[in-house]
From TrEMBL:
Cellular component aspect of the GO annotation: cytoplasm
A GO MF term: ATP binding
GO terms for biological process, alphabetical: cellular response to heat; proteolysis
Residue intervals of the ATPase AAA-type core domain: 66-118
Keyword field: ATP-binding, Hydrolase, Nucleotide-binding, Protease
InterPro entries in alphabetical order: ATPase_AAA_core, ClpA_ClpB, P-loop_NTPase
Pfam family for this entry, one: AAA_2
Listed name of the protein: ATP-dependent Clp protease ATP-binding subunit
Length: 118
């Protein structure tokens, strides 16, 4: 049985109004995955989550009017948090500088949070 003739695949095609071809990997998703793995070492799970969320967005299954995803990268200094975000920006937008970086160490007290949220 071919996936193209599968009743579930037909339903998904009808809902998404997109042609599904499981034999062709998504160029955008594959490129993002390759770019991140080339730039960032040792963060396979984080890369997997980023790529999965992006794939969900591209497939049309994410909520319209909402961000593609919200990520909170946590870890000790030097583990690759900023590098991963910059690699995402480079791959998706073409510029690693297309990132707004917020150093949460600056917002340890409640009155300092006003600087962030107004």
């Amino acid at each position: 049985m071919r996936v193209a003739n599968d009743p579930q695949a037909r339903r998904v095609r009808a809902v998404l109004n997109k042609e599904l071809d499981p034999t062709q990997p998504g160029n955008q998703v594959g490129r993002l995955d390759a770019d991140l793995r080339r730039s960032v070492v040792g963060q396979d799970e984080a890369i997997h989550q980023v790529v999965n969320h992006y794939q969900t967005y591209l497939s049309g299954l994410s909520s319209p009017g909402r961000p593609i995803a919200n990520f909170l990268f946590l870890g000790p200094t030097g583990c690759g948090k900023t590098l991963l975000v910059e690699a995402m920006a480079e791959s998706l937008v073409g510029r690693a500088q297309a990132v707004i970086k917020i150093d949460c160490a600056e917002f340890q007290h409640s009155h300092e949070i006003a600087k962030l949220i107004g």
